[in-house]
Design goal:
Elements: H1 6-22, H2 37-57, E1 61-67, E2 80-86, E3 93-100, E4 107-113, H3 114-117, E5 124-131, H4 134-144, H5 147-152, H6 172-184, H7 193-202, E6 208-211, H8 214-223, H9 234-237, E7 241-244, H10 247-257, E8 263-268
Antiparallel strand pairs: 1-2, 1-5, 2-3, 3-4, 5-8, 6-7
Helix pairs in contact: 1-8, 4-6, 6-7
Protein name: DUF2145 domain-containing protein
Keywords: Signal
Length: about 270
């Protein structure tokens, strides 16, 4: 049996940690594995509670986030969020989001039922919902109903740690944020990714800082197709400062911008 050097073992450990923390169950579209009946039932129960809350508010569009894995070491709770949209005719709720193609360097846009959104074997059966101002809901309804506008801010090249102010790559939460920027900005001001990012910087959006060691960065870039760091400014990258779009950073930005018109609700199963 070959014994790996200690440095190699540390590198492998860093790769596994980074891949799990930033990729697994966060915003991926992978082949479905057989899930336990209990897992499916709990996911559906959480979805039903989220739908009940949304129905009770009378909103038409909201943001909904899930706890895909344990991100506590990064002081984060939620890993991935989507737009929740109500169908006027049938009253059903769908989620619209960007998902990485299962560990590849590509991503696509998906429309799913609320039950599917929580169908993964998530870390915790808990959801965060952000209710939005009526005017922003109306603008988002038009965007989410148009295939052309849906794709306007979408970038197929995916990186779980995409830099928030560079258009080379995009992570799942970043697509939602840039789409929000297009809807929030004065009409016609934001029609490209670069303009969305410039507007977000101007309006004070603050991304989340991850402290990743050089060993972890090197391992992630070498061995994971869906992790890249070359879009980050050198002064940040070489000082172990990696900035990303997180659920918490987006929710906080919206709550600061709409202090009286945005509300955050937490929904969880009683037994979790």
């Amino acid at each position: 049996m070959t014994v790996l050097p200690a440095a190699t073992l540390r590198l492998v450990a860093g790769i596994v940690l980074l891949a799990w923390a930033l990729h697994g169950h966060a915003g991926t579209a992978c082949a479905e594995n057989a899930a336990a009946a209990g897992t499916i039932s709990q996911g559906l129960a959480l979805a039903q509670k989220v739908v009940a809350l949304l129905d009770g508010t009378g909103v038409r569009v909201a943001l909904v986030a899930r706890v895909g894995q344990d991100l506590s070491r990064y002081k984060l709770r939620y890993s991935h969020f989507a737009f929740a949209v109500r169908d006027h005719a049938e009253g059903r709720w769908s989620v619209v989001h960007s998902l990485n193609h299962c560990g590849t360097a590509k991503a696509g846009l998906y429309v799913q039922g609320m039950g599917n959104f929580f169908a993964d074997d998530v870390f915790a059966y808990e959801a965060a919902i952000l209710l939005l101002p009526s005017e922003l809901q109306a603008r988002l309804e038009k965007v989410l109903a148009s295939p052309v506008q849906l794709r306007r801010f979408h970038e197929e090249r995916y990186s779980a740690v995409a830099y928030p102010f560079n258009t080379v790559y995009q992570n799942s939460n970043q697509w939602c944020l840039e789409t929000l920027a297009g809807a929030m900005a004065p009409e016609g001001d934001v029609v490209t990714r670069a303009e969305a990012q410039g507007w977000l910087q101007q309006e004070g959006y603050q991304p989340t800082l991850l402290q990743l060691t050089p060993m972890t960065r090197l391992g992630g870039r070498m061995f994971k197709a869906n992790i890249a760091f070359d879009d980050h400014p050198g002064e940040y990258r070489w000082s172990d400062r990696i900035y990303v779009v997180s659920v918490e950073s987006v929710f906080e930005f919206l709550r600061r911008r709409y202090p009286h018109d945005s509300q955050r609700r937490i929904v969880a199963l009683d037994d979790r």
